[in-house]
Design brief:
It contains 18 helices and 7 strands. The protein is an alpha/beta fold. It has 2 domains: 225 residues, no CATH class; 124 residues. Helix 4 packs antiparallel against helix 15, helix 7 runs antiparallel to helix 12 and helix 10 runs antiparallel to helix 11. The longest helix is centred in the middle third of the chain and has 22 residues.
């Protein structure tokens, strides 16, 4: 076979084709390895660092991160992120209603209605509101799922671990059934516009057989349409037309959602629940003595869905603004707010992220909360460690930020306050310390100071960067 790669073991002098007068190293020097391979991580082919790897202009060091990877793009998005709470304060607060006037007056009215729906007067109401929204955001919350976490973290057998993980995977698909239907319907509309006209009528007729309003778990009828008619039609369309453009990409995404939708059937969930709880080892970890049946767990899920009304209205409002209905001059700000909400959907995000606007005692408050309930630190001796970062803007006062670490009922905390409150830092510190004492917690360190800069998310939660030590690529 011809040596088409021109591979040769004959040494070639580096100055073979160099012009006279241009100096090069000798042959011995040319045999040295100038770009050694570091087998501990994935690097560029030429052994050089990426230009962003050493960029510490913002005061943060990310080690070696490839911004062309999925993980690198996630870190870059966090690093470039704005303070979403301050952005929402500019858009939604009553003194900023000028931003939502004229053609955007309709959206401004929706903002006022949303803020009025979360008018809170007492600390107890505020706590209840936060708990409700946390339960909506955290799908696997409650005593039952705490028990499953205990099983996974306390050395259960391989068979029980596999049964628990299988149940959780199907429960995730089950609870997302309505979302998958919404996504498939939206993608189907795109496919209809992308495919050739001669196929559209038949495609629309098949789509009419779908029940787009089906509840979570009621997948049998729709799955029959998907497997027997819809997906075979789309496969046949690609085979006949060889249309390998955007329509095929949309079809692949449609099929992905269809598979997960089928996996979330109620019958399959019930089978896996029986398999998990029927394991002889399960009783040893079950703190409820078998009192938690599947119907009660699913009822809790329905309750969370009812509590989702506020978060759905908030997301819909931001989407309207991103589409220009809040004024063309505000489109980028609404897009930035949506980015802030979507960051917590990333598979690389190990912390809970809540974005909560509300009205407390007639003052608008825009808050953003980041929580890691299971933070670990090398060398820690003690119990569970919880970290929290809270950023919020209060009408007529300004921006606050609170960073807190709690372990063994002892708190380390830093509170940054607006300039107007700096002189009252002693009063604030004493009052907050009394709150902790009243709730049975002690204070190790507590600093109250003026807010001079924003605490970056990746500084508060360095565990976000830990995934960068693995192989991460973008295809």
């Amino acid at each position: 076979m011809a040596n088409i790669l021109q591979v040769s073991n004959i040494p070639v002098r580096p100055d073979r084709n160099m012009p006279d007068g241009q100096k090069t190293g000798g042959y011995e020097e040319s045999q040295q390895v100038h770009n050694p391979v570091d087998i501990s991580r994935v690097v560029r082919a030429d052994g050089q660092e990426t230009e962003d790897a050493g960029n510490t202009a913002s005061g943060n060091s990310y080690s070696v991160i490839d911004y062309e990877s999925n993980y690198g793009a996630f870190i870059k998005k966090i690093g470039e992120g704005v303070q979403t709470s301050r952005l929402l304060e500019q858009l939604f607060a009553r003194e900023g209603t000028g931003l939502l006037s004229g053609d955007a007056a309709g959206v401004g009215e929706l903002v006022e209605q949303m803020m009025a729906s979360v008018r809170l007067e007492t600390p107890e109401e505020l706590l209840s509101f936060f708990k409700e929204q946390q339960s909506v955001q955290a799908k696997f919350s409650g005593a039952f799922f705490d028990g499953l976490r205990s099983i996974l973290g306390q050395g259960a057998s391989d068979s029980l671990r596999e049964a628990v993980l299988s149940f959780l995977k199907v429960y995730n698909d089950f609870s997302s059934g309505e979302h998958f239907l919404h996504q498939m319907r939206s993608i189907a509309e795109d496919i209809n516009q992308l495919m050739f006209r001669g196929f559209r009528d038949e495609f629309e007729q098949i789509l009419d057989g779908m029940e787009w309003g089906a509840e979570n778990g009621d997948t049998a009828a729709n799955t029959a349409v998907l497997n027997n008619s819809l997906i075979p039609f789309l496969s046949n369309y690609i085979s006949r037309t060889h249309d390998y453009g955007a329509v095929r990409d949309a079809i692949m995404l449609f099929v992905f959602h269809a598979v997960r939708y089928e996996n979330g059937s109620r019958d399959r969930l019930a089978q896996l629940y029986e398999r998990m709880t029927g394991n002889r080892e399960y009783e040893r970890f079950d703190k409820n003595g078998g009192d938690q049946d599947l119907s009660r767990i699913l009822e809790t899920l329905k309750q969370s869905e009812r509590e989702r009304a506020f978060s759905d209205a908030f997301a819909a409002l931001l989407l309207k603004g991103a589409k220009g209905q809040g004024g063309l001059e505000n489109v980028q700000q609404f897009h930035n707010a949506l980015d802030g909400m979507l960051l917590n959907e990333s598979v690389y995000m190990p912390v809970l992220h809540l974005l909560l606007p509300f009205r407390f005692r007639e003052k608008d408050v825009m808050s953003e909360l980041w929580i890691n309930p299971d933070s670990e630190k090398e060398g820690d001796m003690g119990g569970r460690r919880i970290k929290l970062l809270l950023k919020f803007d209060v009408q007529d006062l300004g921006g606050f930020q609170l960073f807190l670490s709690l372990q063994d009922r002892k708190v380390d905390m830093q509170l940054d306050v607006p300039e107007i409150l700096v002189k009252k830092q002693d009063v604030i510190q004493k009052g907050i310390a009394e709150i902790f004492k009243k709730n049975g917690m002690g204070v190790n360190r507590f600093l109250v100071k003026g807010k001079d800069r924003d605490i970056e998310i990746q500084d508060a939660f360095p565990e976000i960067r830990e995934r960068g030590h693995g192989v991460n690529v973008r295809i």
